[in-house]
Prior knowledge:
globular, alpha+beta, 16 strands, single chain
Amino acid sequence: MSRLHLYNPANDLALGLGCRNYTPPPNAASLQRAGALLPLWWAGESDCVLAPGAGTAGVSSLKALYGLNGNPVSEARGSDMRPDPWGWSADTVRIFTSAGVDPALLPSETDIAAMRMLSHRRTSISMLREMGRVDLLPLETSDPQEAVEMERRYPGCYIKSPWSGSGRGVFCAGGLAPEILASKAAGIIHRQGSVMVERGMKEKQADFAMLFHISGGEARYRGISMFLTENRGMYSGNIVAPQEWIFSRLAAMAGRGNLEETARSAAEALGKIAGHKYEGWAGVDMMVCQGGMIHPCIEVNLRRTMGVVAMDVASRLRPSRPGLMAWRRGAPVGLTLLPPAEGWALCLSPLE
Length: 352
C-alpha cells in the first residue's frame, strides 16, 4: 500500500492541548511549512507527501540530486493510501481527514487518547522501572512546592512540561529563587496538569537516542543517533554518520557491551509499555554521563525523530566524514537538504 507522508513537527505541542483544531505558534508553524517536503528523504517510489502550499519549485532537481522518491500533493490520491505522519494526535487525524484520507485508515479517538498518554513524559518513569533503574526516576507532581523541594535537595534539576518538543518546555531550576521556580512550575501544572522534575546528571559526555520501530506488540531496535543540545537543553542538531561510527564513538565512552544491553533492555521495556497501543517509530533519548554511566531513558518520543531522519540521510549520502544536520535561519551552510523556505534551511555542514 502506498503511503501518504506528513511532516508535522508541532505535533508534540498539539498533544499538550489535546484538541482537534490546533494552531501552532508562528515560529513552529513556519518550520512546519519549511519542512513540508522533508518526507521525500524516506518516501517510497509510489508514495506521496502531503504538502499543501509547499510548491514544486526545486523538487525535481532535489530528487535527482539525492536520489529521492515520492511526490508532493495537496490531497490524498486514491482511497487506499496509508497515512504516515511524523506524529499522531487528534490534530493529525483532522489534517488527514481534510485531505480526503479514508477514515477507516485513521486511528480512533480511543487510539489517539492512548497514544497521547504514552507521549506524556511520565512514560520515562515506566521505562526506568521496567529497566531496573529506579535510582534515576524523575518526579511527577501537581504541587509546585514539591518541585521547589526537589531542587533544594538536588540542585540543578530540570523542570519539564509533560508534553513539549525539541527541548522546549524544559528549563534548569539552578539559581532560580524558590518563589520564581514555584511560579513557573505552577504555570505548567495549570496548563498541562502536572510537571516533571528531573535531577541534573553530572558531567554529561554525550546526548544520544536509540531508535526503535514498534509493530505487532514488539519494539525492534533499528539504529542509534547522536544529537547536540544547547546549555538549556534545547535540541540544536543531529550528527549524520554511518551507524558503526556513531556506535563506536559512544562505545568508547560507555562500553560496547553496556550499549548492547541497554538496547536490549529498552526494546523489551518499550514493547511492554507501548507495543499494543502504538505502531511506528519511537526514539528513546539517553545520555552518557560521568564514568561512562548510561542514563537509559531521559524521555520517549513516540514518533519519527530527527535521529531517524539523520539515519535516512546517512544511508543515502554515505558521508566519508561525520556532519551536523541542523535547521538554520538565513543563508544555507554546507549541503542544503531541502529547498530553503520561510527563512529556514535544513543543512548538513562539517562537524566541528
